[in-house]
Sequence to fold (625 residues):
Amino acid sequence: MSARVAVIGSGITGTAVATTLVAAGHQVEVFERGSDDPEPPAGVAAVVQRGDFRPSLSSELVTRVGGMATRWRGIALRWRPQDFRTRSCAGYGRDWPLAYDDLEPWYGRAERLLGVAGTDADNPFAPWRSTPYPLAPIPLSPDDRLLAARLHRRGLLLSTTPQAVATAAYDGRPACQNIGPTCNACPTGARYSPVGHLDRAVASGRCRLHRRTTVRRILVDRRGRARALVCRGVDERIDREVGVDVVVCAAGALESARLLLLSADPAHPDGLGNHGGHLGRHLTFRHLWNGRLHYAQDLHPGAIGPMTGQSHQFLDGVRGHGGIKVEFSSHLDERVWHARWTSAEQVLAALRGAVRCRLVGLHAETVPGPGKHLRLSRRSDRFGDAFACVTYRMSDFDCATHEFGRTLLDRFAAASEAPDVEYPQIGDVASVSHHMGTCRMDRSARQGVTDPIGLVHGTSNVYVVGGAVFVGPGPLNPTLTMVALALRTAAAVARIHAAAGL
Amino acid sequence: MLRAAAEALLDGQAADPARYDQVFVADPALYQQFARAADRTSRSVSGQCFADATLAVRREVLAHIARTSQVRAWALTGQRQRWRHEEAVVVPVLARFARTDGLVAVGYSQWPGAPRDLPQGVS
Fold:
């Protein structure tokens, strides 16, 4: 018998869950706060911020059908075994309650779902795999080939970047023709977006998409069983209750934690899954600092939209600092676009400088800590529900990791023959819209919010997927790991709740 | 008239002026104002209307607009109009140039927006 599964959020993980459950014969209701429009409606998304993190988190919440993955770069990297065991391997953070080997088959499924183009042939630091990449890789750009040769002579490795960009027609997507300035806004659909799969799920007749509908509460009975959602459409004056058999919360790490906190009731006075006080407590972002290397010759960054060259050589942190992925960005230095020109000569002078500059992204690991957390704010949205209040302060570990990044920039500059280096300040950190850890998984309800499958402790049918359940943020892009975990959760939901006769 | 402005702004760079027509669609009244101001200045400098003037005169007229715009004397209506002309004409033309013909001028084979194909082979 099929279950009525409510999926909250239509982003990459919510869509992965919905498509899996629809294929398993379940009836799925997807609730999406946003519409099909690219911009969030004013006043719907908001986060109150405190601490050192300057970028607007409200602007990072992409409230639209398809979520954040409608404008992502498509980078889809497997984490390595040691990324799940940082405490055991490097003495910081916390080990996950699952291992790479547990997740490996799901990584393969996630790569097939997203249509990942890649190779490990040029990356000796890649983890083992049981299945090949579904698509051939995007080669290094001509610039990156030049720099890779220089770096290799001095012992530094630059490899291709696995990414969900079709290099041949795949699953209804065309091959990439390198049209866009970046993959963030792919004009052809060669880069994976959840919208295509969501459309197909809806067309199956077993999935209904509720656009512009905010889920305000999950109603859970005393035995821990979710029975309904309280939700309201953007044009509705009163709430309505929607009966459910299973709830999968896929609203991103900030909004998923907020919803579990808002769903507090007499039986769960601190929010769902918050018996141990961990809900919202282990928030981390993926830290990105952008440095700039200036070369003596023209390199023409931006000639290719997708990212190509990256180094996985320094992913292992030590007790004092985290690991770093070094990424030679394909993009033209965006500062060039901020100028206010009055003549064509000025334009050309600016461009001539920009073509000799390569942005180098330092994708840095961090660890949760007391200065990083999410709680409910005193400010509230138009329904009267408290906004998320995010406190984020950089720790000594983060300062040491930033300093490590500076030394890496120096090494890569010297090896690739860049005479000038611009170092990023620690306050220039970005999250790349990757928020994690607010509903940390752990086997024990005293140490986490969900179990290793994603089931919220103390409930029998409420699950969380996405970065929210991460134990640590790792140094590598988290999206493929989010999708792999979501597919694993969806398979468990399909199995458990079909077996339960729902 | 506006195409003549684009030609002058691009300062003899290799570019198709027609590509810049699209930037002149936002505010027809403002562009008419701009045309009158440019004509007036052009006639005082060279005795010819802006569109018929040489490239050198046109550049001088536009430079005058850009120069006076930097004063940003908001209380003076004439200055404010010049500022608006810069915002509506000078800035968008040069911004489009930077993202298209300017990229080709500094060595790119094509600019984003056109199929450029991916490089071949894996290093």
